[in-house]
Amino acid sequence: MMSIDQLAHKAKQASFQLAAVSTEVKNKALKEIAVLLDQRRPEIFEANEADMEQSQRDNLAMPLQKRLKFDHQKLDDVIAGIESLIRLPDPVGNTLMATELDQGLELYRVSCPIGVIGVIFESRPDALVQISTLCLKSGNAVLLKGGSEAKHTNRILTEIIRQASEEAGIPSGWIQLLETRDDVNELLKQDQDVDLIIPRGSNEFVRYIMEHSNIPVMGHADGICHCYVDEAADLEMAVRIVVDAKTQYVAVCNATETVLVHREIAASFLPKLKAALDVKGVDIVGCPETRRIIPVGDATEEDWRTEYLDYKLSIRVVDGLEQAIEHINTYGSGHTDAIITKDAATAGKFMELVDSGNVFWNCSTRFSDGYRYGLGAEVGISTNKVHARGPVGLDGLVIYKYKLIGNGHIVEDYANKVKHFTHRKLEKEFQV
């Protein structure tokens, strides 16, 4: 069995070859992965059942058990995601800029893969498929570390992806599965071979990763998402949106955890919202003014900072837009926040001033997703402010290199003023 540094080095060597693989071969590999996943459903579900049974014996938290379950619907969804990914343009090899520095001296900025990406994610087996196929299409090798509670499902999925892709012509070693907690610590040491780490987990976990590795880290920690119901909101629309944002699937980072309500409409809106959420079994806590209007629990300071990932919601009545924005920028995690209003100017100000990767108007926070954005899927949601932000799809998994083509040009000619730069923009693609 290879050590982590050997696996990382093998992935690095594969990444050099994968960067030059054609779009046709990558799409063929993705198609073969989708076919093989469909064909081997019984094995996948048998492995997942073993993981589910163990999670129940271990009393795994219910939100994690919901993420762990990998049924026909989830498999259908990941296959649909792969098919969508095939239809997307290849992000590698695109000319992002072209400049004539002087006659016969042309500079191009061209997109290229990052290299080797280490992804540490929670108990969702569907995330493994999404992450690995996105990395393949964007020309990146990947080291995957899923939760130990999903070890059987992760093994069979990785085996299927490896077999199908390599048979289609993808370089051997491009995908590697890590399984233990010790593997994570070893992964963090591989700064010579791993180019980027994307952790998906708690704030504490992400901070740990950042503090214990020299490898660049991109990702998000908590998903503390908000819906602000403005005084100009359509109240029936607001109820539908909030209920969806909270309950459509509670155990995910883009589910709403706090609702902010304008004081002017609180008395008429909150009873409607509570009635709808009671049907869904949502436990509500609120600020003192909320509790004067509807019978709910007392929200503490900690509630505003909590990602419940469960059927629980906190509500605060605010004076208006400014206080709502202040609350979100104070307690939010920079993930996804929505405003519900008929006033375009108010919506525009909210979307401009809320400091989050995703800001929505009159729609559910649950739309914050790579597949729903048309990105094919996502490796995660980034709340970083460099390189990539929001759902990280294909474009977030490439960087660029500069390519300069000359004909005997030397710097001395320009230093001595024999020649002069033109710096003229070119409308052409890079080619040799």
General description of the model:
The chain has about 425 residues and is of the alpha/beta class. The protein folds into two domains: about 5-220 and about 390-400, Aldehyde Dehydrogenase, Chain A, domain 1 (3-Layer(aba) Sandwich), CATH 3.40.605.10; about 225-365, Aldehyde Dehydrogenase, Chain A, domain 2. Helix content is about 45%, strand content about 20%. It is built from 16 helices and 17 strands. It has helices spanning about 5-20, 25-40, 40-55, 60-70, 70-85, 125-135, 150-165, 180-185, 205-210, 235-245, 265-280, 290-295, 300-305, 320-330, 345-355, 410-415; strands spanning about 95-100, 105-115, 115-120, 140-145, 175-180, 195-200, 225-230, 255-260, 285, 295-300, 310-320, 335-340, 360, 380, 390, 400-405, 425. The strands form four sheets. A seven-stranded parallel β-sheet has the order 10-9-11-8-7-12-13, with helices on both faces. Strands 16-2-1-17 form a four-stranded antiparallel β-sheet, with no helix packed on it. Strands 5-4-3-6 form a four-stranded parallel β-sheet, sandwiched between helices. Strand 4, helix 7 (about 150-165) and strand 5 form a beta-alpha-beta unit. Helix 2 (about 25-40) crosses helix 7. The model has no long low-confidence stretch (mean pLDDT about 95).
